[in-house]
Amino acid sequence: MKIVEASKRILMNRVLFATDFSPNSNAALPYALAIAHQYDAKLYAAHVLSPDAYLFASPESWPALREQTELEQQEVVAQLEAQLRGVPHQVMSPVGDIADVLFRLIRDHQIDLLVLGTHGRTGLSKLLLGSVAEKLFRQSSCPVLTVGPQVPRSDKPVAEFNRILLATDFSDESLVAVPYAISLAQEHQSRLTLMHVLEQAQGGTVDFDSNAEFSIRRLRELVPADQEMWFQPDFVVEFGATDKQILKVAAEHQADLIVVGVRALPSVSSMATHFGYSKAQLIVSHASCPVLTIRG
């Protein structure tokens, strides 16, 4: 098994929050603020404006459309400035394809974490659909914290990460998530649970008890003995469908955050990730807490 440098503190100096101002999208703001406060990070806020209005408009109407876009950008900046008052931040309202613009902002501003809500009223509603979701999960050069539609809305201005669940299949791609889970647990003084799922084998050909014991030992090895943790980590092995078991354990442990590693794929058409593309999508869209995905 590849040794992971889990004792290294993960730095998050620049956090990017993407929003379209819908309730679902703004539900991600408390989590972006929590990370920014904990790491003394600068918070970048972006509302991506769509260029579609120009596609079917005559050239004569472009000046008016440009003026309208500028007014929308001013309104966006004013609304974001109000939400982020008191936090070191920078507000942006770029125009273009959502995924491409976010990747450009991540690169240009050396972003350490992308935070977003899903099922908003405009372009962000597509983040869990088709190639856009896969593009974000596997191509983002920084981790992505996604707040799905099943996450309860909180009245607290800053979210809390009291219980963190790390799911791994021990592949190199999934192990990249280990340092992030441990670092977040330390920073937020959280209870950390590490879990592995054994898929159901056909014909009872696998000794699940032996595999479970072996998996528990491997999970324990992921946390260095000299690691300073506020609470002793829990180790869980479950049997069955990966996505269903992760969601079940997250609910049982009242997790505030699920952390998983995802595989970077050579082509958008491929549907395989650490948990399989459809499973990763199911986890994000059905989890009752945010999901942090880190590309291997």
What report would you give on this structure?
With 296 residues, the protein is an alpha/beta fold. It has 2 domains: 14-147, HUPs (Rossmann fold), CATH 3.40.50; 163-295, Rossmann fold (3-Layer(aba) Sandwich). Helix content is 36%, strand content 18%. Strands 3-2-1-4-5-10-9-6-7-8 form a 10-stranded mixed sheet, with helices on both faces. α9 runs parallel beside α10 (277-286). The chain has helices at residues 23-26, 29-39, 62-83, 98-108, 130-139, 172-175, 178-187, 208-221, 242-252, 277-286; strands spanning 14-18, 42-46, 89-92, 113-117, 144-147, 163-167, 191-198, 234-239, 257-262, 291-295.
Write the layout of secondary structure elements.
Blueprint: E1 14-18, H1 23-26, H2 29-39, E2 42-46, H3 62-83, E3 89-92, H4 98-108, E4 113-117, H5 130-139, E5 144-147, E6 163-167, H6 172-175, H7 178-187, E7 191-198, H8 208-221, E8 234-239, H9 242-252, E9 257-262, H10 277-286, E10 291-295
Parallel strand pairs: 1-2, 1-4, 2-3, 4-5, 6-7, 6-9, 7-8, 9-10
Antiparallel strand pairs: 5-10
- Name the CATH superfamily classification of the largest domain: HUPs
The portion of residues assigned to helices is: 25-40%
Strand content: 15-25%
List the strand order in the largest sheet.
3-2-1-4-5-10-9-6-7-8
Radius of gyration: 20 Å
What is the count of structural domains?
A: 2
Kindly provide the name of the CATH class of the largest domain: Alpha Beta
Query: What low-confidence regions span 5 or more consecutive residues with pLDDT below 50?
Result: 120-130, 267-274
Average pLDDT figure: 80
How far apart are the first and last residues' alpha carbons, in Å? Answer: 15 Å
**How many individual helices?**
10
H/E topology pattern: EHHEHEHEHEEHHEHEHEHE
Q: Tell me the number of strands.
A: 10
Described by the principal axes of the CA atoms, the overall outline is elongated
The CATH topology of the largest domain is what? Rossmann fold
The main sheet comes to: 10 strands, mixed
